[in-house]
Amino acid sequence: MTGAGEAGGERQGNGTPLVEVHDLVVHHGQLRALDGVSFQVYPGEVYAIIGANGAGKSTLLRTIAGLHHPTTGSVLFDGKDVTGLRPERRAAQGIVMVPEGRRLFESLSVEENLQVGATYARQGPWTIERVYEMFDWMRERRKQPTAQLSGGEQQTVAIGRALVANPRVLLLDELSLGLAPVVVQRIYGMLPQILATGLTILLVEQDVSQALRVASHIHCLLEGRTTLESRPADVTAEQVEAAYFGLAGAAPAGRPGEGE
Ligand code: ATP
Q1: What spacing in Å lies between the alpha carbon of 67 and ligand 1's midpoint?
Q2: Nearest 5°: CA angle at 59, between 57 and 64?
Q3: Measured between alpha carbons, how far is 36 from 26 in angstroms, rounded to an integer?
Q4: Which residues contact 81 (CB under 8 A, 6 or more apart)?
Q5: Where would I find the beta strands (DSSP E) of the chain?
Q6: Which protein residue's CA is at the shortest distance from atom 26 of ligand 1?
Q7: How much distance in Å is there from the Cα of 11 to the middle of ligand 1?
Q8: What is the pLDDT of residues 131-176, one digit of tens each?
Q9: Is 101 in the pocket of ligand 1 (CB under 6 A)?
């Protein structure tokens, strides 16, 4: 198992981390939602943050996107400290989020939503046309208000809206929320095609089995603290369950082997 303190290991072969989070503490009022969280995401990885309701997963993703300000700690992107940058400046550098609940402009059409995503786009492979090539149905329904789409279709438009900004890291917050399992499978099935364009993915997922299927690395939070960080292949289902629920038997992150 890889400890948070030495989360590189064999991953360091991938070069400089694209995203680094150092000792992040984030409060919502009096509540300490994140309490000293650190990790690195390397280029090309699918890095999954897992944890129960209220564990701090969305807070973490939103802090990386610049939507929450940490009390202490820092966020580095491609080796540069972006902790003080506003969300739009981070987006311009390639940190782009698909928010929980999709947050589409429901009265606007599919194409208008994609145009919103393209407004401050970086140069890169993704255009609205490229999104239509990947999802043919979207071209056919481009004039339709997104309110008329199914949940899965809306989630796909939200992903398309993020892609046209040409992210370097795509932050995905709970893609599976409120969707039928078959739809969730279809949406996660798109990730290889997206990764093939050179993206890195940092996702938050409450559905642990889904996260274990797609992730190259998992990081479990419990009440704002790291309880496990590992490659999926290096942990047992029991260790993941223990980390998720805070039971004895979880291997403490940062001290490999302990608790096993
Ligand atoms: P969920 O899966 O339910 O979204 P989560 O792991 O993403 O959970 P967060 O949404 O980050 O967890 O919430 C962490 C804690 O912070 C929770 O106790 C939550 O109630 C609280 N919290 C989150 N956002 C706010 C906010 N804007 N104001 C006050 N408290 C908040």
Answers
A1: 13
A2: 100
A3: 9
A4: 74, 75
A5: 19-28, 31-41, 46-50, 72-77, 80-81, 95-98, 169-173, 200-205, 217-222, 225-230
A6: 28
A7: 30
A8: 999 888 889 988 988 888 888 889 889 999 999 999 999 999 988 8
A9: no
Task: For residue 97, give both structure tokens.
Answer: 């989020």
pTM over 0.85: yes
- 95 with 82: CB under 8 angstroms? yes
For ligand 1, say whether the CB of 55 is within 6 Å of any of its atoms: yes
CA 141, CA 174: separation in Å to the nearest integer? 25
Q: Which residue has the tokens 């698909």?
A: 98
Q: Tell me: the pLDDT tens digits for 51-102?
A: 999 999 999 999 999 999 999 999 999 999 999 999 999 999 999 999 886 7
- For a ligand 1 pocket test, name from 24, 30, 31, 68 the mutation site with the most ligand atoms within 8 angstroms of its C-beta: 31
